[in-house]
Amino acid sequence: MLAKLTEKILANGLGDEHIVSHSQLPVPKVSTEDQGTRDDWQDIGDTSHEDSIHYAVTEIALRTADNATTSSHYTLPEFADTCQILHAAIPSQHDVDLLFGSGRAAIYLQALCNSYRELFEEGNSVSAAMLSILPPVTAHPVVLVRKLLQLALCIQQLDPSFNHQSLRLGMSASEAMHKYYSLASSKVTCHDDLLDSLEGLECLIYEGVYLVNCGNLRRALVTLRRAATLAQFMGMHRKVAYTTPKQHDPATRVSGDVAWAHIAYLERYISLLLGMSSSITNAKFGSEEKKVDETDAEWFERFQVDICEQIINNNQRGNHDDLAATQKIDETMNKTADSIPSNWWTPLELRPGMTGDDLMALVVNAQMQIVHYNLLTVLHLPYLLRKTPSHQYDYNKTVCTYASREVLNRYIAFRSIVRIVFCCRIVDFCALTASLTLLLAHLSRDSRDSTWLLKHQRLGDRALVEKTIETLDELNRLNGDELTRETAKLARRLMVLEADSTKTGEAYNFGVVDEAQDSNGNEQGERAFYLKVPYFGTVKMAPQDSFVSPCLEAAPSTTQTDSSHTMSSAVSGGLTSYASSEEPIRLPQHVLIGDESSLVQQTELDMFDITMPDLMADTSDWAFQGVDTAFFDSLMSCQMMDEGGWNSTWYDGS
């Protein structure tokens, strides 16, 4: 039986090269022969073995390797050693079956490169059993690596309640996940010459999504831009395909049109979050009218790809005094949102009788809802702190705060169900932006301004942020996550400042300063608050009336060596005051200053010199990944007017 199965696997031709159209590959069906292969896996092996399936996999791998070594059956003989290393890293069939069969993993993987209509409405998806079939050691390296990256993504999708004791990986699931990614990135995806196929593009997409899920947006952007270039080499950006991409595995199922759109979606949105230009320009993905074969989610997602580019271009022009461009984008977003049925906008909720595929479809919708309102927030963010006698920016402020509330309400509902931070990681960055937006809006509110309705929304907004913090804390408890922990920490600090602002009736001003040259530190005492943002500068928050004659000789240098975020001095009633001549307390991201118990940590850490995170630092060194940098850069991009907001004298060299 074992010999028969080995021969059958070798005959499957997974290492052979096939040429197909990139627009849509045929959907593999579970044929009688395929089912027989799956059944054979269960029948092999002596029952006296503790794990007969694992034994069978090991035997097949060894026999396949021996046979391939003697007969040169490797697809790429020069990479034979690499193939053996990659194949040896693949876990047992028992573990692979568990990982592909758990939760939403199987449908999640297919949704990255195939249309939602086929998967969710037509039910035209590949089963977890078929996806878990392992390639032989003789397969092309990119086919082997694809399986490792799929397994890494499967592990990311495991629910916190999953019984990890059922796995026999020989290491923790987290360690295995990182191992699979590291092998893939160091052995195969780093070699451009190995990626000239649909499987190669698929691997870059998997790698990019893996990094996004980990919260490593900067590294993800680099990978996604490589994927975008490769997709264009294959002609996927053209309306009509003139080339047929190479294919190593006949079972590969990738829609070139969908893959190209998903790459652009992630590349443009992450570029926007990081305050960067997109590498995919002048490419339109959306259409005025929904096509007959498009779902609402597919149509809306493509529209969002285009909106991202419009907002990026608007921000890059930097002329925010001209509201026409911003207003046009706002109107387009509103018109498009109105085209979607109202029941589509229902926040994520569990319904009786839902299948895993049903839930995955709703998860996709919910993420798009959150992204929509985040895009509105980012669009109007440059006007949030602007104050003019004519109140010409009130509409922008209202939309900005309204959209932030929508993000947080939907985020709380979303994360009460999807408790895996590795799933739809983007929404956690949306929660960061929304929390900062609401709290800074309240901090800058002038209680004497009777036209600004924000004061009537204060209690509801505080309750919303408090519930968001509870959600973030629970996610951190379940996942041990840097981003949710750091977002909750920063939100708590701003909540304290907001309470002080309301108590005293004083609005807060914000600006970029050099603490060593800030002459107002003594006067502001305990109510001045400094936040160091990497590659941006030190943001100072203090009561508006405290600033008499701030001085700053030059704009802060981006070469300073500070921690990701440095919090120095607090509002009255909690922490000790520090004179402006003292060095600010340098804190790593995991230390919270928000109550008296933190004072000991704060003093002890004053002796450490925490360096600026590297440009490509991962989440352990830079949880916010530069989303914080882009946020504050957008706030100050308007060069605020005379009253309130950013005080330009702090950074104009006067």
Give the total of beta strands.
6
Q: Give the CA-based shape.
A: globular
Q: For the terminal residues, how far apart are their CA atoms?
A: 84 Å
What percent of residues are in strands? under 5%
Helix count equals 23
Folded structure, characterized:
The chain has 654 residues and is mainly alpha-helical. Among the domains are: 2-14 and 28-260, no CATH class; 506-654, no CATH class. Helix content is 50%, strand content 4%. The chain has 23 helices and 6 strands. The strands form 2 sheets. The protein has a 4-stranded antiparallel sheet. Strands 1-2 form a two-stranded antiparallel sheet. A hairpin with a 3-residue loop joins strand 4 and strand 5. The longest helix is centred in the middle third of the chain and has 25 residues, at 356-380. The radius of gyration is 27 Å and the shape is globular. It starts with a helix and ends in an 18-residue tail after the last helix.
What labels would you give this structure?
654 residues, mainly alpha, two-stranded antiparallel sheet, 6 strands, 50% helix, disordered N terminus
